[in-house]
Amino acid sequence: MLGVLAALSAAVIVPAPSRAATSVPQLQHVFVVVLENQDYNTVMAPASPATYIKQLAADNTLLNQYYGVGHVSLTNYIGMTDGELPDTDTKSDCISKYCVRSQRNIADQLEDAGKTWKAYMGSMLVPCQHPPLAGAPDPYQSPYATRHNPYVYYTDIVDNPARCDAHDVPYEQTAFESMLASDTDVPSFNFVVPDNCDNSHDPICFEPPGAPESGGLKKADEWSASHLPAIINYVNSHAGSVLIVTFDEATPVDTSDCDTCGRTGSAGGHVVTIAIGQGVRTQFVDSTGYNHYSLLRTIEDGFGILEQPGKPKYLGQAAAPGIVSITAPFVP
C-alpha cells in the first residue's frame, strides 16, 4: 500500500510536458540581437569560447535548423526587415555606393499597426549614421558598420531626420538598461546590433580611444554575457515578450538553407538562433526549418499585422512557399 501511495504521489508532482503553440501568440515586446559570421558547429563545439551563448541555448529554446538568407551581411539584414532576396547591391554590401531603396519595411508595418520600434547600433555616433547618397565608397566599416544597420537603407526612414532621431539610435548600455529596469517607454520592437568588436565580425578590432584588441567569438560571448541579462530579465518578467539571439550568416563556405525554404545550396548557411522569454519553452530544441524570412514573418504575426490595400501582411519572401513562422518555442 505504501508503495502504491508513493507512486501516486510521484505521479501527481511530475509536471506534464508543455505543448508547443501552433501559431505565434500576440506579442507585446520583441528584442532581436544580431551577431556576426559564425557557423552553427563552430559556436556549439565543445571547445568553443562561446560558453555563455551555449548555456543560453541549453537553458532556453535552440532553433537548431535556422539559416541565413545570403552572403554577405547586408543581404541578411535587408532580408530580416523587408524580405528581399539578395540583389547585386546587397550582395556587395553596398560598399562602393550608398544603396537606398523605397521598399516597404517592418518599421512601416509596425507604425501602421500602432506599434513602436527602435534600432540600437553599437558605436554609431549619430542617429542613422550613413555615407552620402553619392560620392566616395562607404567609410563606415568598423567598429560601426553601415551594412549592419538595415534601416538606413530605406528612403522613408533615412530621408526623415525626425524619424531617424526617434528610431535609429546609438546603443548605449546604461541608458538601454535603465529603460528596461524602469519599464518606461520600452518599444514594441527592439533591434540591437553590437559593433564589429563585439559581434564576432572582426578577429582584431579597434574601438576608439583604445588600442587594437582581440575580437571574434570570444569577445561576442563576453558582450552577450554582459549585455543580454538585462533583456532576459525583462522578457522573463513580461508576458508576451521574447528575445531572439541570432547570427546574420555563417562563414562563406556554407551556403545552405533549410530544406523547406526553397533555396537549399544558395543561402547564408546554418547559424545558432535562440529564443528566450516568459512564454517560451525552456531546455527545448526546435528542429523546424527556419531562416531570416521566418523571423520577419514571426514578427508580423506576433504584432498582428493585417493586410491592407496595396500593403500585404507578409513582406517579400516572408510570404514565400516553405517559409513558416516560428511557433514551436511558444507555450500556448
Structural summary, described in words:
- By secondary structure, the chain is of the alpha/beta class.
- Helix content is 29%, strand content 14%.
- The protein has ten helices and 13 strands.
- The strands form three sheets. An eight-stranded mixed sheet has the order 5-4-6-1-9-11-2-12, with helices on both faces. Strands 10-3-13 form a three-stranded mixed sheet. Strands 7-8 form a two-stranded antiparallel ribbon.
- Strand 7 and strand 8 form a beta hairpin.
- Helix 8 packs parallel to helix 9.
- The chain is globular and about 55 Å long.
- The two termini are 38 Å apart.
Q: Give the spatial strand order of the biggest sheet.
A: 5-4-6-1-9-11-2-12
Order of helices and strands: HEHHEEHHEHHEHEEEHEEEEEH
Count of helix runs: 10
Which class do the helix and strand fractions yield?
alpha/beta
Secondary structure tally: strands = 13
Stretches where pLDDT is under 50 for at least 5 consecutive residues are 1-16
Mean of all residue-level pLDDT scores:
92
Distance from N terminus to C terminus (CA atoms, Å) equals 38 Å
**Helix amount:** 25-40%
Backbone shape: globular
Radius of gyration over alpha carbons? 20 Å
Largest sheet: 8 strands, mixed
Share of residues in strands: 5-15%
Task: Give a brief rundown of this model.
This protein has 332 residues and is an alpha/beta fold. 29% of the residues lie in helices and 14% in strands. The strands form three sheets. It has an eight-stranded mixed β-sheet with strand order 5-4-6-1-9-11-2-12, with helices on both faces.
